[in-house]
Design goal:
The chain is an alpha+beta fold. It has three domains: 4-100, 2-Layer Sandwich (Uridine Diphospho-n-acetylenolpyruvylglucosamine Reductase, domain 2), CATH 3.30.43.10; 107-217, Uridine Diphospho-n-acetylenolpyruvylglucosamine Reductase, domain 3; 221-428, Vanillyl-alcohol Oxidase, Chain A, domain 3 (3-Layer(aba) Sandwich), CATH 3.40.462.20. The protein is built from 13 helices and 20 strands. It has helices spanning 37-41, 61-74, 124-132, 148-154, 161-164, 192-198, 234-247, 290-298, 313-316, 342-352, 402-416, 438-442, 446-456, and strands at residues 4-7, 13-16, 28-30, 54-57, 78-81, 97-100, 107-110, 115-118, 136-137, 171-177, 183-187, 207-214, 216-217, 221-230, 252-260, 275-283, 305-312, 329-337, 361-367, 387-396. The protein has a seven-stranded antiparallel beta sheet. It has a five-stranded antiparallel beta sheet with strand order 7-8-12-10-11. Strand 10 and strand 11 form a beta hairpin. The protein starts with a strand and ends in a 26-residue tail after the last helix. The relative contact order is 0.13.
Length: 482
C-alpha cells in the first residue's frame, strides 16, 4: 500500500503512510491501487463514480469505533457505506475515508421474543430470509437489494406498512457509535432523543452497528400480483384506484406503476414495450378474505392482463428486482401527494407518453393504515397523514443520455409541484438537492433534529447525508465536497 491521501473536513488533504494507519489494523484496508477497490466502491446507481482515498472494511463494532475515532482525530471527511443503494450516492466522496459495513450483515431472530437483531450491512433479502424462516417479517421496502440501514434511518415503507407501520415504527433499539467513539444504546428508555432522531433523521448522528426490530406475523405466503391497464385509461383507473385505497383494509396495499410494459410472460406480446399503467398489490391477511379484499381492485376498468396468486412473501419482495438491478444510471425526483385530480393525472400521462428511455417509470407508493396512526412528532418522520409518495424514476444506460433523462424528471417534478404537499421522503432525494431539501424532508421536526445533531455530533463529522448541521445548530455550515 503506497502513501494514502485523505481529504479533511475543511477541504485540504492529509498524507498518511502505512504506519500511520495502525489504528485501523482491525479493518481490511483497500486503497485505490488494490484490485478490490473498484468492486468495493461500486454502488447501485452507476451515475455515481467517486473515488474514496481509502476504504476501511469493518468486521466488528470495534472496527467501526476505530475508524470513527481515527477520522475524528485527524478531521477527515468520513462517509458510511452500507447497502450502497442511496440514489444520491452519499456513501462515497472523492478522497474520503469510507467506512464499509457490507461485511457486517448478520440477522439473528429471537423467535421467543419476536425480535430480530440486524447488523448494518444486511440487505432486505438477508432480513427476509432470516425472518421468513419463522413466518415473521419487518416492514421494509420493495427491492431486496436495498440496505436495511439507509432504509430504516430514512423511515422505510413497503408492502406491509399499512398493516404494521413504517420500518422505524418497528425499531426497538439501536447500538450507535458516536462521533467521539463512544458506543451507546438508543431506545425509548436510553438516549431517547437520539432514538427519536434515528427514526427518520438519516445518518446524521452516528454509525448504527446493530438494529433491534419487533417482528410481525405475516406467514410465509401472501396473495399478490399485477394488473396491467393501457396508459390511455389512466384517468379512470387512477380515480378508481384512489377510491379502493381509501376503503381498503390495512392488509391490502396497492401501488401504481406507469412505464413501458416489460416482456412479462402473462402480458400479450403486442403490448411489450408499450406504455401501460400497472396496479401492483399485496394482501397479507386471511386467505379466505382475499376475494372480499381485492374484488373491487380487480373490477377496475378493462385490464390488458392480470397475474395474481398465493406466493412466498420473500419471492414477492423480490418481484421488482429485475427492474431495479445494479449498474444502470438513475435519477429520481419525488413528491408527496394527497390525491391525484384530473390535472395531475393528465400531466403524468403526458410525461409517460414521452419517456426518455425504456426503463423510466413513475410510481405511486401509498402510505396509509398503521403508518398514519402515529403522532407526527413521535418520530423524526413527520408526515403521518395518508398520502402517496410519487417517485419520478429515470433509469438509463448511456452517459450521453444524462441530460435528457434528468431534465425529463425535473420537468415532471416541477409540473406536479402545484398539486403536491411540499414534503419529501428523505431516501428519494437525489444528488445535488440534499441541502435545498432539508426543510421539506424534516418539516416541523427540523428544529428538534438540529438540536439532537448538535448534541451528538457538534463538529458535523457525519455530514455525507441529507445534512442537518448549520449555523443555527451551532455546527459548521452545510458544505458537502464534490
Amino acid at each position: 500500500m503506497s502513501n494514502i491521501s485523505l481529504k479533511t473536513l475543511n477541504g485540504p488533504s492529509l498524507e498518511f503512510e502505512l504506519a500511520d494507519l495502525s489504528a485501523l489494523s482491525g479493518c481490511k484496508l483497500i486503497a485505490p491501487n488494490n484490485p478490490e477497490y473498484d468492486a468495493r466502491r461500486a454502488i447501485w446507481n452507476a451515475m455515481i463514480d467517486r473515488r474514496p482515498g481509502l476504504i476501511a472494511v469493518a468486521g466488528s463494532e470495534q472496527d467501526v469505533v476505530s475508524v470513527v475515532e481515527f477520522a475524528a482525530l485527524h478531521g477527515l471527511l468520513l462517509t458510511i457505506r452500507a447497502g450502497g443503494h442511496n440514489i444520491a450516492g452519499l456513501a462515497l466522496r472523492d478522497g474520503a475515508l469510507t467506512l464499509d459495513l457490507q461485511d457486517m450483515n448478520a440477522v439473528k431472530v429471537d423467535r421467543a421474543a419476536c425480535t430480530a437483531a440486524v447488523q448494518p450491512g444486511a440487505r432486505l433479502s438477508d432480513v427476509d430470509a432470516a425472518t421468513q424462516a419463522h413466518g415473521l417479517a419487518i416492514p421494509t421496502g420493495i427491492n431486496s437489494t436495498t440496505g436495511i440501514s439507509g432504509l430504516t434511518l430514512g423511515g422505510g415503507f413497503g408492502w406491509t406498512s399499512r398493516k404494521f407501520g413504517l420500518t422505524i415504527d418497528s425499531l426497538r433499539s439501536a447500538r450507535v457509535v458516536l462521533a467521539d467513539g463512544r458506543v451507546v444504546v438508543a431506545s425509548k428508555e436510553e438516549n431517547s432523543d437520539l432514538f427519536w432522531a434515528l427514526r427518520g433523521g438519516g445518518g446524521n448522528f452516528g454509525v448504527v452497528t446493530q438494529f433491534e426490530f419487533d417482528l410481525h406475523p405475516v406467514g410465509t405466503e401472501v396473495y399478490a400480483g399485477l394488473i396491467v391497464h393501457p396508459l390511455s385509461a389512466a384517468q379512470s383507473v387512477i380515480r378508481e384506484m384512489q377510491e379502493e385505497v381509501a376503503r381498503a383494509p390495512d392488509e391490502l396495499t396497492i401501488w401504481t406503476v406507469l412505464r413501458k410494459a416489460p416482456p412479462l410472460p402473462f402480458v400479450p406480446e403486442s403490448w411489450h414495450g408499450r406504455e401501460v399503467l400497472i396496479l401492483a398489490f399485496c394482501f397479507i391477511g386471511d386467505p379466505s378474505q382475499v376475494s372480499t379484499a381485492t374484488d373491487g381492485l380487480r373490477g377496475i376498468g378493462k385490464p390488458i392482463a392480470e397475474h395474481a396468486s398465493m406466493m412466498p412473501f420473500a419471492d414477492w419482495q423480490k418481484s421488482f428486482d429485475p427492474l431495479l438491478t445494479d449498474g444502470a444510471r438513475n435519477y429520481w425526483k419525488s413528491h408527496d401527494m394527497p390525491r391525484f385530480n384530473e390535472g395531475a393525472v393528465q400531466i403524468i400521462e403526458e410525461a409517460v407518453s414521452s419517456l426518455p428511455s425504456d426503463e423510466c417509470e413513475v410510481f405511486f407508493g401509498h402510505v396509509g393504515g398503521m403508518a398514519t396512526r402515529i403522532e407526527p412528532y413521535a418520530t423524526a418522520w413527520s408526515n403521518r397523514n395518508p398520502h402517496f409518495v410519487v417517485n419520478v424514476h429515470t433509469r438509463w444506460r448511456d452517459a450521453a443520455d444524462d441530460e435528457q433523462c434528468v431534465q425529463w424528471a425535473r420537468n415532471l417534478f416541477e409540473a406536479l409541484e402545484p398539486f403536491a404537499l411540499g414534503t419529501r421522503y428523505v431516501n428519494f432525494i437525489p444528488e445535488g438537492d440534499e441541502q435545498d431539501e432539508v426543510q421539506n424532508a424534516f418539516g416541523p421536526n427540523l428544529d428538534r433534529l438540529m438540536k439532537v445533531k448538535n448534541q451528538f455530533d457538534p463538529e458535523n463529522l457525519f455530514r455525507s447525508n441529507i445534512n442537518l448541521a448549520g449555523p443555527s445548530a451551532g455546527g459548521p455550515p452545510v458544505e458537502l465536497p464534490a
